[in-house]
């Protein structure tokens, strides 16, 4: 996992009543606790507040533990956890924020935009000041921001992202392309953005 943003170290406390004989709890902790930092990092980007992110992760773990019996072994546990976290975040948002999160889906289900792993946008993101990158990502609408973070930070596949966000893979690709373009434009417009002229020439040739 690439590090963009804040992380957190910590443990989630589960009550003894959460397990029967300790086996479900032990199995859950073995799978879930290695994901703590990634989930917190994602929650921090979504919530824009460390306290809210901690509450969001805590609630995510409790919901996941309660529903662990329904989890199918062999399926993608990481995607399952991130989906719970995102749904928990959306349920805490206002109706307006939820509409903003799912906005433009219909527009994005048209022709897919080509998405490459290494693009002028990602080159610029990697070379730019980390604070500029974080600010540019923070300014993205939630539905673009979460897609970009899952791809660039968590290095998830399009299939995983589609599963977490409950959208078609084509929409994932389209959102990712638009998010990268928005970040690129934000970075290139920043007065202190390094290598702006050089990268602009590189971008113009693609």
Structural write-up:
With 206 residues, the protein is mostly helical. The chain has 2 domains: 20-92, RNA polymerase sigma factor, region 2, helix turn helix motif (Rna Polymerase Sigma Factor, Chain: A); 106-204, Winged helix-like DNA-binding domain superfamily/Winged helix DNA-binding domain (Arc Repressor Mutant, subunit A, Orthogonal Bundle). 65% of the residues lie in helices and 0% in strands. It has 12 helices and no strands. It has helices at 23-32, 36-47, 50-66, 77-92, 95-102, 105-108, 120-127, 130-138, 142-152, 158-165, 169-189, 196-204. The longest helix is centred in the last third of the chain and has 21 residues, at 169-189. The protein is globular, with a radius of gyration of 18 Å. It starts with 22 loop residues before the first helix and ends with a helix. Mean pLDDT is 74; it is low at 1-11, 16-21, 98-116 and 195-206.
List the helices and strands and how they pair.
Blueprint: H1 23-32, H2 36-47, H3 50-66, H4 77-92, H5 95-102, H6 105-108, H7 120-127, H8 130-138, H9 142-152, H10 158-165, H11 169-189, H12 196-204
Helix pairs in contact: 2-3, 2-4, 3-4, 4-10, 7-11, 7-12, 8-11, 9-11, 10-11
Count of distinct strands: 0
What is the rounded Rg? 18 Å
CATH topology of the largest domain: Arc Repressor Mutant, subunit A
Cα(first) to Cα(last) distance is 28 Å
The helix-and-strand class reads mainly alpha
Number of domain modules: 2
The CATH architecture name of the largest domain reads Orthogonal Bundle
């Amino acid at each position: 996992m690439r590090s963009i943003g804040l992380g957190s170290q910590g443990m989630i406390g589960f009550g003894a009543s959460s397990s029967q004989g300790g086996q479900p709890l032990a199995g859950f902790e073995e799978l879930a606790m290695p994901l703590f930092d990634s989930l917190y990092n994602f929650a921090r980007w979504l919530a824009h507040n460390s306290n809210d992110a901690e509450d969001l992760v805590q609630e995510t773990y409790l919901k996941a533990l309660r529903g662990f019996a329904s989890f199918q072994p062999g399926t993608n546990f990481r995607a399952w956890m991130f989906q719970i976290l995102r749904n928990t975040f959306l349920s805490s948002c206002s109706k307006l924020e939820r509409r903003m999160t799912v906005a433009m889906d219909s527009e994005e289900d048209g022709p897919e935009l080509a998405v490459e792993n290494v693009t002028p946008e990602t080159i610029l993101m990697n070379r730019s000041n980390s604070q500029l990158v974080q600010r540019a990502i923070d300014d993205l609408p939630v539905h673009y921001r979460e897609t970009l973070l899952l791809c660039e930070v968590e290095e998830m596949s399009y299939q995983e992202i589609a599963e977490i966000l409950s959208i078609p893979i084509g929409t994932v690709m389209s959102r990712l392309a638009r998010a990268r373009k928005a970040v690129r434009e934000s970075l290139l417009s920043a007065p202190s953005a390094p290598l702006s002229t050089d990268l602009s020439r590189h971008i113009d040739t693609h």
